[in-house]
Amino acid sequence: MPPVRSKVEIGAWGVRYYDFLLNVLSLGRYSYFIRQVVEKMGIKSGQSILDLGSGTGKNECFMAEKVGPYGKIVGVDVSDEMLSRARKRCRNYPNVIYKKQRAELPLPYKEDFETVFISFVLHGFENAQKLGIIHNAYQALRVGGSFYVLDYAEFDLGRMWFPLRWAFTHWECQLAVEFLELDIKGMLRSQGFSNFEEEFFFKGYLRLLKAAKPSVNTT
Question: Which residues form the domain of 111?
Fold first, then answer.
């Protein structure tokens, strides 16, 4: 059989243990890490946020505390199991809603959000699909809005500490390996984004990349 190029869509077993596995891989720091990321995003009360590939809902619960009762968060995911778990997790936040939609296909949002977020999802798509996701983010954002990509940074896998390299090569897919050398900023720029900022985590292996939708298209 050919190697599996993507593991972005996982089955019911993977959903059940998704948060647990991420916590193990982050040495028990996953929740703290996501809170750090949300703090770096500078979310303000009343903002509207779109989360592409919302997963089990952990991100939305943290962000809902920031946007408050007058903000809005929409999480989209393709997995019924993920959506079910996310709805249960965020049931105390009525302004958090979830929809079953594919992030790489055209979405019905046009200048509806101040912020678009995608977390450890973009690396799992082929390059043409990545461009579709980035285009969707651009379309969904209001002028001056920000697109945040939380994913792997660019690094030399061969120089990675062996236990981490073993875990990465056995846990992740071929597309994730290719992602380490991909010019994500170039992809974002090709779809109209500019003014990049970045924060690094876990010794530089993970990156929160911020891109702005400018008032004038720069393509």
Answer: 12-212
CATH number, domain at 157? 3.40.50.150
Is residue 217 within 8 A of residue 192, CB to CB? The reply is: yes
Q: What is the pLDDT of residues 112-163, one digit of tens each?
A: 999 999 999 999 999 999 999 999 999 999 999 999 999 999 888 888 777 7
Q: How many angstroms separate the CA atoms of 101 and 124, rounded?
A: 16
Tokens for 126?
């082929």
Question: Could you tell me if residue 2 is inside a domain?
Answer: no
- Using CB atoms within 10 A of its CB, is residue 25 exposed (0-12), middle (13-18) or buried (19+)? middle
When the pLDDT of each residue in the chain is averaged and rounded to a whole number, the result is: 88
Q: Is residue 7 part of a domain?
A: no
Q: Contact, 208 vs 198, CB < 8 A?
A: yes
b/e per residue, 39-55, with b = 16+ CB within 10 A?
Answer: eebebeeebbbbbbbbb
Residue with tokens 């450890």: 120
Render the burial of 156-194: b for 16+ CB within 10 Å, e for the rest. Answer: eeeebeeeeeeebeeebbebbeebbebebbebbbebbbe
